[in-house]
Amino acid sequence: MSGLFDPSAVPAPSGAAEALALIEAGLDFLNGADLPALPVITLAESLQTWSRLTAKRAAAEACLVGAFDAVDGASADAQSSTSAWLAFFTRSTAPASRGILAGARRLRRHPQVAKALAGGSISESYGRWICDSVAKFEPQDREEVEKILVDAAIGGALLEDLLALVVRMYRLLCPNGQERDEERINAERRVTLGKTFGGAGRLNGDLTAHATALTETVIESLAVKRGPEDNRTKPQRRHDALMEAFQRLVDSDLLPARGGAKPQVKVEMNLADLRSLPGGPQAEADWIRAKAAELARGRLAGRTAEELLGAQSHADGTRAPLLAGVGAVSQVLAGALGCDSLLAPTVVGSVGRDALAAMTDRWAREHGLAGRGDCAAGAGCGCDCHHPMSPETHQRLQESMLRWAVEVLSGPGGLASYLRTGILDRPLSGPSIVLDAGEDARTVPAGLERTVRRRDGRCRWPGCEHPAELSQVHHILPRSEGGPTTLSNLLVLCLFHHLIAVHSWGWTVTLNPDGTVTAAAPDGRVLHDQGPPATGPPLWAA
To answer: Of these four, 74, 90, 421, 497, which has the most CB atoms within 10 Å of its CB?
Structure first.
């Protein structure tokens, strides 16, 4: 890079006017040159040199503005301030003028950053970041912190390295500083949504660290390109990701009701926690005795085990909803949530693999399928006692045991419900059911919608793998044109391909007789699916 630009080879100007004239001549040359014709290596080296010159320009500008401000040069032109003079005589906007003056004053307070910029040792943006970081420290520590950060940046430290360095020094020099910053940020948190012409809006805000992390995670996970036809810019994809996140939340029915209705709080409790509560072991023993007696009576009546266990799962035809939880339930949490909310209690559990294996092995031993060698007839008995079941058979037996265990523990008569209603106080001991509050006016009936999602399995746009359960159901022939709400006229499309590609950009999708899908753009582009969905009922099930 030194071969491309060697400042020592250029004669030093005789004064400030000549220096500025040389700078302007150089810029005029670059603006008039055929830069695209230069080799890539030359362009790359030029950009690196330009970054160094930008740093030096920032230092020189700060010196010029600082000197003008120090002698109150604005008053000679009847201007009230330096920023007002900059706005009028340099034709800058008021915010830009204030920013230039603030930058000059900032570098005056940070001489080590100014020196590094003047030498082109650090970039302008790194210098600004160091100044902002140093300002967080106590006045007596700022000079030393600034020196450490500038030396690290000159030595080649990246921004993430500097950030780690700042965090370590901040924790050492300001033990309570992090808490104060968090309190300030929390107090200043805000989000504003302003509506503009035509219903469009502008979203602004200052987020806490937690909210920022959540927002970044949600938006970045949804702001991905969906295929070759996706020509949205990154900001557009981020906008659509935010819209999709909100749409998913609305579709999930997790939002509280408006207009004075109480919110419904989903409370999850773990079965293991219920078993460990005071009175849990005794209640569990009572439930086991009662169920054992019930099974014995059923056996005497000639009912099979499958009939007995299956009848217990949902005796009244209801099923507890699968709801997202808010964590383990304590007495404090139960009291807080029960103050003014509708509670929907749900008991969850995890599979104890060791217990499942022990239960399976014991069943196999008691039925002579464990390969034990204690048969009274000896090795030539001819029975299966010396031949244990295969690993595949053992796995199938474990899966069957697990299914039946879940059936025994769940449902209104299961152990989970028995413990919850017998140990906990109301309202958490109330019925764990979904109350009927009226049906939504659905464009697609719920049963048909489930069938479409099960059939398609994913967004049916060619090449898109978005899950069906997170997508929308689309009428191939629009309802406004007489399209029927039938299986053959419905497809699952993700939010991007449905709302943007089809309804905004004018693409059309066609369900072919062989189950494939074709997407056609208004400009003639055509995308073909590679085959019908792999699961679900056939496309001709309509």
So the answer is: 497
Provide the CA 380 distance to its chain's centre, in angstroms. 64
Q: Are strands 342-348 and 264-270 parallel, antiparallel or unpaired?
A: parallel
The alpha-helical segments, DSSP class H, found in 124-190 are 124-134, 139-154, 159-173, 177-188
What letter represents residue 433's amino acid?
I
CA–CA separation, 489 and 474 (whole Å): 8
| Alpha-helix runs per DSSP H in 322-383 | 331-337, 353-366
Q: What is the pLDDT of residue 154?
A: 94
Partners of residue 183 on adjacent β-strands: none
Find residue 343's DSSP bridge partners.
265
Containing H/E element for 94? helix 94-109
pLDDT at 301: 58
Q: What's residue 505's pLDDT? A: 86
Burial 188-223 (b: 16+ CB within 10 A, else e): eeeeeeeeeeeeeeeeeeeeeeeeeeeeeebbeebb
- Ranges of residues in the chain with a pLDDT under 70 are 1-5, 8, 177-179, 181, 196-199, 254-276, 280, 284, 287-353, 356, 367-389, 398-443, 480, 530-542
Cβ-proximal residues to 402 (8 Å cutoff; 6+ apart), any chain: 351, 356
Q: Which helix (H) or strand (E) holds 67?
A: helix 40-70
Contact 527, 471 (CB under 8 A): no
What is the pLDDT at residue 282?
A: 75
H-type helices in 367-518, by residue range?
A: 391-409, 415-423, 446-456, 495
Q: Which amino acid is it at 248?
A: R
Helix (H) or strand (E) holding 526: strand 526-528
Which residue blocks in 301-388 are alpha helix, DSSP H? 305-313, 331-337, 353-366
Secondary structure percentages of the chain, helix, strand, coil, to 5:
55, 10, 35
> Among 188, 182, 242, which residue's Cα sits nearest to residue 209?
182
Cβ contacts of residue 463 below 8 Å, gap of 6+?
227, 228, 527, 529
State the CB neighbour count (10 A cutoff) for residue 107. Answer: 24
The predicted model scores a pTM of: 0.41
Closest residue by Cα to residue 4 from 68, 49, 69: 49
CA distance 149 to 132: 12
φ/ψ of 172, rounded to 5, equals -75, -45
Residues 6+ apart with CB under 8 A from 375: 381, 383, 385, 386
pLDDT at 89 (0 to 100): 92
What whole-number distance in Å separates Cα of residue 125 and Cα of residue 115? 15
* Cα–Cα distance measured from residue 343 to residue 32, given in angstroms and rounded to the nearest whole number: 72
Start-to-end CA distance of the chain, whole Å, equals: 70
